[in-house]
TrEMBL record:
Its cofactor is FMN. One of its GO terms (molecular function) is FMN binding. InterPro entries: Aldolase_TIM, OxRdtase_FMN_N, Oye-like. The lineage of its organism: Bacteria, Pseudomonadati, Pseudomonadota, Gammaproteobacteria, Lysobacterales. The keyword Flavoprotein does not apply. This is Alkene reductase. Belongs to the NADH:flavin oxidoreductase/NADH oxidase family. Residues 4-330 form the NADH:flavin oxidoreductase/NADH oxidase N-terminal domain. Keywords: Oxidoreductase. Transmembrane segments: none annotated. It comes from Dyella telluris. It comes from the Bacteria.
Amino acid sequence: MNHVFLPVRMGHHTLQNRLVMAPMTRSRAELDGTPGPLAARYYGQRAGLGLIVTEGTQPSDDGQGYLTTPGIYTDAHVAGWQKITAAVHAKGGRLFIQLMHAGRMSHPDNTPHHRQGVAPSAIAPNTPMFTMKGMQDIPVPRALSTDEVRQTIADFRHAARRAIDAGADGVEIHGANAYLVQQFFAPSANTRTDEYGGSIENRARFAIEVAKAIAEEIGPHRTAIRLSPGTAMWGIDEGAEGPDLYRYLVAELDKLGLAYLHLMHLGNEALLADLRKLWKQTLILNRPGRPREQIGNDVASGLADLEAYGQMVLANPDFVERLKTGAPLNDADPRTYFGGDAQGYVDYPALDEAISA
C-alpha cells in the first residue's frame, strides 16, 4: 500500500499522494445552484488526498438533473466555488470540478426553468426520480437538434472557463453513470441519424468534441474525463459494440493530451488492460466496493497511476492518515448521503477527535 502515499506528477500538477476523492452527489447546494454554506468545510476536511474530484456540477440550466446540485455557470456559482477551492488549496490539495450534464436523467420540477429534459433521442429512462413532490417518473426527454448539441458543447466550454475563474485546478467531464455523455454512446438512448448517432465514431463524437472544446478553452492539462464502460443502469445498454466504442474513444481522447482518464471499472479486465495500453497520460481507477485490504494494488501493479475512493472518503475526512496508521475507518451513513445539513456531511470525526471522544 505504501506506493499510494508517494507524490506523483499529473499533467502540470504535483499531487501529494496517489489517492483520489471520487465524485459524489451530496445535494446540499442552494436552490440557485450556488454551493451550500458547509461545502468549503466539507471539501477542505478532505484536502489530504492527492486529488479531489467534486460532486457532479451542472454546466447549464438544462444540465441539472437532481434537486439542489451545484452549478458552475453564473457569477454566484463562481463565488461559491471560490470558497471551496481556497479551502482545499490552503491545505495543499488539488481540486477538479466535475462537469455533469444529466441529460434525460432529469425532471422539470428539479430544474431552474422547469422545462422538459434534453437527450440524444426522445427515449425515457423508465425510472423514477426524487423531486420536491416525492418520487416521480422521469418524463420522455426532448431530442436535441444538431445545433442544440453544438450549443451544449459550448455550455461545457463556458462552464470549464467559469471553473477556472473559481480557482479550480481543472475540470472532469462526466462521461459515465448513464448521464448525457454516456447517453450518446448507448444505442438504447441514441437513435440519432445525424453525425452524432449510428456508427461508433458518431456516437463517440459528442464526448470528443466536448473534450476538445474544453481543452481549447482552459488547456488540456486542466481537462479530464470519467468513463464507466459497461454501465447498465437507467436504461443504458451499450450493446455488443460497447468495448470497441471505448477502445476508439480512449485512443482519440489520448491524442488530446488530457490531464487524466478516470475509469469506473465494472469487471471487464481485458478491456481495462486494452485501455491502459491506449492511454498514455495519468489513469485513475475506481473499483466500486474495493475492500480496504486491496487499496494500493492497482498502483503497485502499474495498472493505474492513482486510485479513487468514494464512501470511505465521505465517512473519513482524514482517510489518508487512517490508511497510513492502520486506524479503523468510520462507516458511512447512507441515510445522510443526499440533502440535509451538517449531519453525515461535515461531522464525521477525524482520528484525533475519535480518540479524544
